[in-house]
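Not sure how to ask, but would you mind making up any protein sequence you like and the tokens describing how it folds?
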Amino acid sequence: MVGQWLPLPLFPENMMKTLVHIALILSIGIGLGLLIRATKQRSSTELPPDAVVFTNDSPEIDPATVTEDEPSIAPEGWMSNFELTERSGKTVTSDELKGTPYLVSFFFSTCPSICVQQNQKIQDLQTMFEGEGIRFVSISVDPKTDDPETLREYAARFHADEDQWLFMTGDLTYIRRVGAEVFRLAVDEKFHTEKFVLVGADGQIIGFYAWPEKRQYEQLQADIRKLLDSKS
């Protein structure tokens, strides 16, 4: 009708098409942005190609399940014996340690707290089992600092008996292998777990013990006593 007002569409057809195109472009851009972000996050957690990684797929040994008929066997190609330099400057081998049970730990002399507490625990064990045929083997994970002279000074802080409590050092890469392959613990430069490893007189692992946990520390004492009593 002439003179009658007709309502116009809110958006002309060509404008609607333009908005649809813009929406599609924005959604594609957002999707690409999220994909790029996820890729960057994933790559940031990946190890560098030259990283040295030691894996330990074998479960830690439960002391209750180990018997003389079921010795622990290292996977093919893994290190099973070792030799390190003691604070005296002498080389000590794992074969020389056989014949008496021994307790292994990892530490470094410049550690201000955890290692001190850990070695105080060993000092208590040394007093508890003085002269009873158990040895303690503490291996440094900071060999650049912990040369034999430094280890002698450090050992004196804990009144470590030279024959009963050994402090060992060596090449860092080699010590990583000793930790991972011989004692099944991940160690690295100035890094170690808060666990003791009890080894029998035959060189086989008896068990692992988290020394900060009272029950495990008490179980360690009981297992050491059991080993010593079985020898007499």
